[in-house]
Every structure is written in structure tokens, then in C-alpha cells.
Amino acid sequence: MLSLPDDLRGAFKDPMGPVYTDTERLLADAGDPIVAVGDAVTYHLRVAGRDPDVAVIDGKTKREAVGAEIAAVLDGGNRRIEVDNPPATLSTAMLEALAEALADPDPVVIHVTGEEDLATVPALLVAPEGASVVYGQPNEGMVLVDVTAASKREARELLGKLDGDTAAALSALGVE
Prior knowledge:
The protein is an alpha/beta fold. The chain has seven helices and twelve strands. Catalyzes the GTP-dependent phosphorylation of the 3'-hydroxyl group of dephosphocoenzyme A to form coenzyme A (CoA).
């Protein structure tokens, strides 16, 4: 549905919030619910005793398959939604899964065949204000983004810069 143009790749490299290396400190500052985007982030939150309300994983970290220790923690008993989402894209299935998972009162894992890297942007749009979206910043730590009116505006602007049908993407998310 949406794809990242090559000239915009740099816009997605800067962290959208503070970077944490201590999971306990991150959790002390996080809102509720928590959306985790990435396998390593989901692993660290679960090991710290906080199952994300929504976890978006693809079985990889830094484009390599996760190790057995991380995989064992990711294979929890939560409801799973399987989606295809090619690299550098946001598929309709991904967007619909985010909306469905956030509407579920129980924790949900969205398991992606492809890549989950861009899921942070629509997660900010569909998550309620007061929530937190946490994603990995390679070789730095975990980024905590509080869901506020301002972060929603920034996410909408970023989504609008992607190639494709933004209106259809917002509709798939259930966002006006």
C-alpha cells in the first residue's frame, strides 16, 4: 500500500524520542498500552517482566535471524496475527493488524513475513494518547515515543511522505 522512497530513508534514521539502554528506566517512563516494534525490543521488555500489549516482530534483528535465546522468549502464548509486509513498505495487512491488535484487550503478537521496520509510524497513529511505542535504534538502544497529539501529527506527516495511497492507509488503520 505504501512504500518508502529512497530519498526519504534518512528521515527515518533519527530517533523519534529518547534512547534507553536500561529497560527498567524505559518502563518507568512508558505509558500504557505499550507497542513494541522489533524482536530485540520485545525480548528486553518481556525479560523485564512487561509483555507488550502489541509486539510487532519478524524473527530478525539487524537483518539477521534472532538467536535461540531471543526466539524462545518471543514464542509466547499470545494471540498471533500473521502478515506479509515486504521491506520498506507498509502493507494493508500490516495496517489492519495494528488496528486489530490495539483493539484487543489481551496482548497480541503481529508476526511479519518480510520486515517490520516502518510499523512505528502507523502504530503512533492508531495507539491512544498516553500509550508508548518502543522500537530499536540499531547499536544504540530502545527508543521510547510517547503517543501525544504532537507525535501523532509527526507520524501523519511521515506517513504522508511515503509513496502510495495515504487516504487508504489511514482508512485501513481506522484513523480519520
